[in-house]
Design a protein that fits this description.
5-stranded mixed barrel, two-stranded antiparallel sheet, homodimer, about 600 residues, alpha+beta
């Protein structure tokens, strides 16, 4: 169950697909040497491989325990968390002004993926803390930033996001937690929040809860939600910790996976603290704009969860591949004197290739999205910023929804590759299968991502960004056609299939966009029946685009197949075209059937 | 987490798809009244719902414990197992001459599915016992049958199958357990067997192990394997139990799912018993024919595991549907005054419809296969028997591979439908996701089933059975075309899509068969690269066939849509056509790409 950070693939994606070189040309990163990128990545590999990865199984088997509101996390997590803080990993992509390192998002995407792969349950603590940092940098006052951000960045404190309540999951309009103003600029918060990741633990001195609640006279629905800071311990002006606040862990959940991560039920205003009844809170930004702030923070969190999917896919793939090389069983299909390692069996190759193809494609898409985010926030020209930010916004629900759905498939194939061993917990493959299962649910289910993709990201701009992307794909398709024409025998058959399937997939994608644009007004239900298929189709074709670009690099860089990495990459791209891209047309067919399905269902009991 | 046996669907499948009426016309079942079928099914529903289902979560949370070779199972399993034995469920399909009830396999398929759905971990004990009964009835001597079968049938004793060794999983040629003849007609067995389901437990007085081992001078490979009976306690001629035999449980596994089922490592010949060193064994049938006997027994076991997949799909679907009706969240997509039960949201409908469609289609295929088995073993005319047995043989790897792969998708969608609740173990949805994960692995992985389907079941007869099936599908397609022509507006759009997609799926199926037939000699690897896609394609089209037949029944039986069951069935069939059948053409595309993929991989490190 060792883990090796996929440095070679990151380098390939940075250099050939996501344009790290272009990012470093921007003034914002003028101080960043390209050597630094590699140095950070290598250091991150050492940290995640040697310090974090060994705690993964430990967290699964010795999960946190809760007693009287006190949560004790897995012992080995303490050392890893201390090293994480000291290494400055939390601040990697954040401004130097607040204690960060001001490095590109693209780089942070890679270091995060490694952290997620090394120990997903552990990584949730930094992931949530990052969301809090993001929200405070965006909407907090200077005093709030000064008080909280550096301590969060240094790993002395951690952060949480408190949205969900028992009656308010995907539908935040139902949030009922109350915030009562005290006349001194502070509030008292009352209510119950559930599914609070690292809501209580003993890793850090303090926990900074960001809480969605309603002020007393707030409008109903999502427009009456405000965002509050509720620290576990009140913080004095000099940064020292004061009274225990009135926020309490009632219990932690017994979950299918990510056992190492304590998921808390938090009670606000249970009157057990030193501050009297009600959790002392300060407002972030303006009243009733809480959801708006949350959404910006959620964008980052959703993107990060997508990258968690890629991390778990990478880890599951590494483990399955190692097992398949080691396990000798049955003769080769062409005949062989003795039994061979199972990696030689065609169906094991199909499974491993599927795992590789989905992992590498989702990684490439996520990295390109991260680069768009860097351009969108840091490029000197506004036009370029706006264009790239719109691309990033379109890609976030896809990175989240598609990468995590793929991770379920990959983790399941990982178990399957092990045969009976895969079902034995000590093998480790089963943990990825269990851990991954939350990824398509938290930070918005795949259906929520698909609603976002259809509603806010496709309909609102009349399909502009989506069709811009397909136009760009057609440019790559033309390059591919030229490559087919001049290819050697080694590459020609693979490139030919790739071209054929990429073209079909682009057609399917464009037709789906038009279906969404043309039918929503008249028959919204039939469009939303196909919303998840549309999201998945977009993911497959965007992944295919990056795999085609990768194949073109392979052809250009190596006329022979001596380079093992490039040879693998090319084979994986061909496999993606041959086995994965055909899913796009299939999904388009289902999207077209939205109307007949929703009509048939009106006569059934699913209404 | 209640369970309701799907009696209405069984009745529909019996009456309209699997031809229970025809079976009961055969002399073998002349004593069986059709009332009896319903009475048995009702009684089975009561038993599985009230007695077995409540033990499911209990077994998951309080799994068996092993200490010094003694395994204590979950306490509540004892009562359920006693009731199982007393109810005569073990002997339902077995000959009356040996204590069974001589009822059709088709009926046993339904009662088994209910048992599997109620508690999969519990059901494995009867499932394995059934395999032992089957093997002894097939190859045992009269004395062996007399000694063991009635006690197994009554639930006083249980049975196990001992194939796997650490170095011999899918590849039984590597089995190295030894059997040494003692000169008195008995043998002593030495070796280690792993993954032995219910290999040790305290549910019954005795455990009858069937063990694959090699006699001293046996040839190497699978042709040197013999089958032995090793009882935990030796059995005297009068059936009383004697000395403790030299077979010992070294440990039980810590598994992802089916926690209630003890999976044992068994040591034969560890010299801790009362019989001296070596487990006392008797040979079943002839030496070196062990694998042959095992295969016949395995056919039944593989079929049963397929039905386990259907059972878990049914259970997961019931739970998700109940939750979706109960959980109120977000407004309707068309707009609504308040939040609605999530069953009204299009993507939840898509998930629940997928779950229903796959469950009902796999059930219908399995029941048709079971009926073919009844015809194949009981029909008075040899021609009819042979034809049906060949159909059954073709369908077994599909029922096993396809139904279990579908159950993974269904169980995963079951978790997803619950949102965050699905990840909390106490909800129960996660247990099905964990339990189901073994189904595509044990009794032969999906790849092993696919090898069987390609090699023994398609190539060996030149595709005859496969093409016979597709011919029969085209007859149904013609009926469907006529139904489209005369359909009312309620049915017409759905039938039209169903016709279009069923035709495409049959085309894809036939083309795949021809691809397999035409390419294996020249390029076996490219064919086997697509073996699992071929198996899945066959499953989807066979499932589609039964859903089309179901839709035709719905049209015939109800011109209105008043009947809730028929309306649901029709909607599910339409959904299957619109959303599931398009997978067939997609899989065909991948099958065609076997060559380009296997060529590309030769340059990669997956070799």
């Amino acid at each position: 169950m060792t883990f090796r950070a996929p440095l070679q693939d990151f380098k390939f994606v940075f250099d050939h697909l996501a344009g790290m070189g272009d990012l470093l040309q921007m003034p914002a990163f003028s101080a960043v040497e390209s050597d630094l990128i590699e140095a950070v990545l290598s250091e991150n590999a050492r940290f995640t491989e040697d310090v974090v990865a060994p705690t993964n199984w430990d967290g699964d088997q010795k999960p946190p325990a809760a007693q009287n509101g006190v949560v004790t996390v897995t012992a080995s997590f303490h050392k890893a968390f201390k090293a994480f803080g000291e290494g400055g990993w939390q601040g990697l992509r954040h401004p130097e002004a607040w204690g960060g390192q001001g490095l590109p998002n693209l780089l942070a995407t890679a270091t995060n993926e490694n952290l997620f792969a090394a120990n997903m349950a552990f990584s949730l603590c930094p992931l949530l803390t990052d969301g809090v940092i993001e929200a405070l940098l965006l909407a907090g006052s200077d005093s709030q930033k000064t008080t909280y951000v550096p301590a969060l960045m240094e790993g002395r404190w951690t952060g949480t996001m408190n949205l969900t309540e028992p009656q308010a999951g995907s539908d935040l309009s139902l949030v009922s937690s109350k915030a009562v103003p005290q006349g001194d600029g502070t509030y008292r918060v009352f209510g119950q929040k559930i599914y609070i990741t690292y809501g209580e633990h003993d890793l850090a001195e303090n926990i900074i809860h960001l809480v969605l609640a309603r002020t007393v006279d707030a409008p109903s629905g999502v427009k009456g939600l405000s965002l509050f800071i509720v620290p576990k311990y009140l913080v004095a002006d000099d940064g020292s910790l004061g009274q225990r606040n009135d926020v309490w862990c009632a219990s932690i959940e017994h979950k299918l996976g990510i056992h190492g991560s304590p998921t808390a039920v938090l009670l606000y205003g249970d009157d057990k603290g030193e501050v009297g009844k009600g959790a002392v809170a300060t407002l972030v930004g303006e009243e009733n704009r809480g959801l708006e702030y949350m959404f910006i923070m959620m964008n980052a969190a959703r993107f990060a969860v997508g990258v968690q999917g890629i991390g778990i896919s990478e880890r599951a793939t590494q483990q399955a591949l190692a097992y398949a090389r080691d396990r000798v069983q049955s003769r080769a299909v062409e005949g062989s004197a003795a039994a061979v390692p199972i990696v030689r069996h065609p169906d094991v190759q199909r499974m491993l290739s599927t795992m590789r193809a989905l992992t590498e494609a989702t990684r490439a898409v996520a990295c390109c999205a991260a680069a768009a985010h860097d351009l969108g926030t840091q490029h000197p020209e506004e036009m370029v910023r706006r264009f790239n930010e719109s691309i990033y916004d379109y890609l976030v629900p896809i990175v989240k929804g598609f990468s995590t759905e793929c991770s379920l498939e990959v983790a399941s194939l990982g178990v399957q590759t092990h045969g009976g061993m895969g079902f034995i917990e000590e093998t480790g493959a089963a943990q990825y299968y269990r851990d991954a299962r939350i990824l398509t649910i938290y930070e918005g289910t795949t259906a929520i991502q698909a609603n976002d993709l259809v509603g806010r990201k496709t309909l609102r701009d009349g399909g502009k960004v989506a069709l811009d992307l397909s136009k760009a794909m057609r440019v790559t398709l033309d390059e591919l056609a030229q490559a087919v024409a001049t290819a050697t025998n080694v590459h020609k058959p693979g490139l030919t299939v790739l071209h054929q399937q990429f073209e079909l997939a682009i057609d399917a994608y464009e037709s789906s966009i038009h279906y969404v644009l043309n039918n929503t007004k008249e028959d919204i239900r039939s469009v939303y029946t196909g919303s998840v298929p549309y999201l998945m189709l977009a993911g497959y074709v965007l992944g295919g685009w990056q795999m085609v670009r990768s194949a073109l690099v392979c052809v250009r860089e190596s006329t022979t197949t001596d380079d093992r990495f490039l040879a693998n990459k090319f084979a994986t791209a061909v496999f993606y075209g041959a086995y994965i891209l055909p899913r796009a047309s299939m999904l388009y067919t289902t999207i077209l059937h939205g109307k007949v399905v929703s009509e048939a269902l009106t006569h059934s009991d699913l209404v």
